[in-house]
Amino acid sequence: MVLQNKVALIVGASAGIGRATALLFAEKGAHVVVGARRQDALDELVAEITASGGTAYALAGDASNETYAQKLCEAAVERFGGLDIAMHCAGALGKLGPTAEMNETNWHNVINVNLTGAFLGAKHQLPLMEKRGSGSLILTSSFVGYTAGMPGMAAYAAAKAGMVGLMKSLAVEYGPRGVRVNALLPGGTDTDMAAEFASTPEEKAFVRGLHALERIATPEEIAQSALYLASDASSFTTGHAMLVDGGVSIKKG
Ligand code: NAP
Could you list the pLDDT tens digit for every one of the 253 residues in the chain? Predict the structure, then answer.
């Protein structure tokens, strides 16, 4: 129970990596506040956590909205007394394709949910952790935009690279206050987003083959790395862009 009595907020928890992380954090003893747009999916998650003996509270909203970011933090304080851990997992690929054909609306949508959402969350989460004198903030970035340039992914890559820059700045700003800030950079992971990226058997085989391990991750494997960053096991780790990517970043042939 490495997160016993910690309070964790996970934004983008209705599916995929965020959902698996919420389940794991609750299993490890944390009181969990979960956010995303789909209330029904969040309610199901809360029911699952509660049935396993954990505690969770859900509040639905859009991660790119500052009032929502604020309300999630208020919920953590009102329900569970403060905030120790936060993870920005809300993300969207947007419309993939040639940059010359990408419209500005798509650009802004992708930047808003991935990057602006991470900023807005951090803005309200970090002061609560500072009050505790310790804390861990995790931004879910990607190898895309960090170790890999992939065609047709300009907005997503820019957002994910921006999250790494944001994380480094926050780590230095909040380090003296006892709060750690890191980025988690998954490789291909078996979620709705991965299915959106590669849907046919040929596309899926192509994506698997990009990885040294010749497979993609389960969301539960990525959640284990989030647990490491959230827990005291990583007490001297801050400002780190942690690749958990099955070797997609180093495979060349
Ligand atoms: P996913 O299964 O599609 O889940 C995305 C989550 O983000 C959902 O809970 C979704 O919930 C939430 N979300 C999307 N837009 C939102 C918004 N505007 N406001 C609030 N929540 C929003 O994807 P995933 O693969 O687990 O992705 C999680 C994170 O990992 C993302 O940041 C993604 O970029 C990153 N990542 C994924 C992979 C991969 O291969 N899967 C690889 C590298 C990095 P609602 O629809 O209910 O809002």
Answer: 899 999 999 999 999 999 999 999 999 999 999 999 999 999 999 999 999 999 999 999 999 999 999 999 999 999 999 999 999 999 999 999 999 999 999 999 999 999 999 999 999 999 999 999 999 999 999 999 999 999 999 999 999 999 999 999 999 999 999 999 999 999 999 999 999 999 999 999 999 999 999 999 999 999 999 999 999 999 999 999 999 999 999 999 8
Residue 239 tokens read as 């400002």
190, part of any domain: yes
Ligand 1 within 6 A of CB of 242: no
For residue 78, is it within any domain? yes
Asked whether residue 216 is assigned to any structural domain, the reply reads yes
Tokens 């070797």 belong to 247
Ligand 1 pocket member 69 (CB < 6 A)? no
Annotated catalytic residues are 156
Instruction: Record the pTM.
Output: 0.99
Q: Which CATH number fits the domain that encloses residue 229?
A: 3.40.50.720
Show the domain range for 209: 7-244
Residue 114 Cα to ligand 1 middle (Å): 9
The verdict on the CB of residue 16 being under 6 Å from ligand 1 is yes
* Number of domains within the chain: 1
Closest residue by Cα to atom 48, ligand 1, is: 37
Residue 90 inside a domain? The answer is yes
Contacts 24+ apart (CB under 8 A), 229-234: 229/136, 229/138, 229/180, 229/182, 229/184, 230/3, 230/6, 230/8, 230/25, 230/30, 230/85, 230/87, 230/136, 230/138, 231/2, 231/3, 231/28, 231/136, 232/2, 233/2, 234/136, 234/180, 234/182
